[in-house]
Amino acid sequence: METKIRTELKQYYHDRKRASHCRRIKYDRRSELGISKLKGAAVPPNAIHHSNVTSSCNKPTTFYWMAAAQRFGRCPGFVFGAVYKTWCRYHKNNPPLDHEHFFANLVQITETGPKSIHGIVTAHKLLADQVATVLTRMRQECENGAGQFPDQLLPQYHLLQLSRAIIVIYDEFITPEFVQEPHKEVRRQQVLLVLTGDDHELSAPISFDSIRSESLSIAKEASSTVGKPYNMIRVPFIVAIKFILDLQERENAAVGSVNPASEINWADTYDREAAEYADSVLQSFAHDTDAEQEWKFTTAEMRLAVERIEERERGEEPLPTMDVDMLDPRWE
With 299 labelled, which of 65, 128, 277, 325 sits at a CA distance of 20 to 30 A? Predict the structure, then answer.
């Protein structure tokens, strides 16, 4: 029986961790706490600093949300919902949940921000350089014993080289038909994929040949504001997301990968944490404690584990202990 309870407790840990991550990501983006803003045509020299640098880490691209694709100066939540759902499905609903991992860093371009593709690419390169500079400075501070960021966490944060080479631009709002069904809406919304030319650190050049058959026409207005020629393509959301995630998988698999974070076995990390959690609950249950509130919390966890075991023995499949969509089913 103890083995079965341990298994349920570990699953509970996994469900809780995923739900917590999903809730944080959803709430931050929906309330725009997790969306950076590009307010001027020029990037200020201190746009990236210690407190916001990690939002650019461990993401294969940046998602630039142009003013024309916003509604009343805000970024509609269903768009982020479509991105989030597709990212989770790509990772078979078990994506990496730590250290700011996500498909893209979301950046809202305000009415006073850059208007052309060239302006966005220029700003992107400056921001990426600032991220690299700040990360280097933070690592040096840690080595000198003056770091403000936890030493054990800093090595897990990296500016992925792919994020320098390709960006996503959402420049056209299409009135949604499936606001509460992001997996459908992700096929209707469109984005521009733009190569910045900064690809010298990649394992191989980026080519759009594999998605050329999925390409959509680029409006004359978009091409006329380029300022200089860029290699770009317009495709549905779902094509863009999969294309970039496939590219990151290619980079991760490359010999001498420039992404040390890719060498971490996230499944093993979570399993180890889940095992430690299960051990702590079982140990607390086995000993008396004067902390009545903690005891009640522990017994509640044990009770849930036992109930799920009994459901399985009756041939029933228990529902997830924490359903991520039930936490916040709407995206608006």
Answer: 325
